[in-house]
Amino acid sequence: MFLTFEGIEGCGKSTQAKRLVARLTELKIPVIHTIEPGGTGIGQDIRGILLDNSNECLAPLAELFLYAADRAQHMTEVIKPALLNGTWVVSDRFFDATVAYQGYGRNQDISLIKMLNSRACSDITPDKTFLIDCPVEIGLERAFRRNRELKQEGKARFEREKVAFHESVRKGYLTIAADEPDRFVIIDGSLNEEDQEALIFENIRPLIPQGRC
């Protein structure tokens, strides 16, 4: 089973991904938790480039190719082997993020993005995607607070974008979700963490083998 979490900066997707992994682990379901960008050693190097505030001159097309490179390595090294082994994969972001951020946010060619995603992913698609949706102002406030607490202010290249960029990304996510209602589950990011977790698990429960929960 391949599950992904998506959403704008500070929406709470990372928290919910970790909560789901913990719950699946309690049920003794083999599962790994991974992220994009940065789910591999090579990916961590790419992540450093993508998130570094000093890389303001990074061209949108170069940014797109870096995400595609990270994803190709991630799929080859982590995701595909795990799925073939019968292990569940929970990923904090996947290819929908590139459509939302680089397509709707950066105005890159969405047909090109989808082609790169297809090649990088060997046409593997998540079984279920949870979009944690919240207003941009709330998400950014949370993201900046998190970065201060973790002393990661220097790795906030996307958080520093204009509000209009983040609004375009949020709109992009909602458009993608509307186009694939069978795969996407939209979760209200303004709910408390426990209520979000409960809603997510209700959507996961039918996918769990009988006798595990």
UniProtKB/TrEMBL annotation:
Its EC number is 2.7.4.9. One of its GO terms (biological process) is dTTP biosynthetic process. CDD domains: TMPK (cd01672). GO terms for molecular function: ATP binding; dTMP kinase activity. One of its GO terms (cellular component) is cytosol. ATP binds at G7, I8, E9, G10, C11, G12, K13, S14. InterPro entries: P-loop_NTPase (IPR027417), Thymidylate_kin-like_dom (IPR039430), Thymidylate_kinase (IPR018094). Belongs to the thymidylate kinase family. This is Thymidylate kinase. It comes from uncultured Desulfobacterium sp. The lineage of its organism: Bacteria, Pseudomonadati, Thermodesulfobacteriota, Desulfobacteria, Desulfobacterales. The gene is tmk.
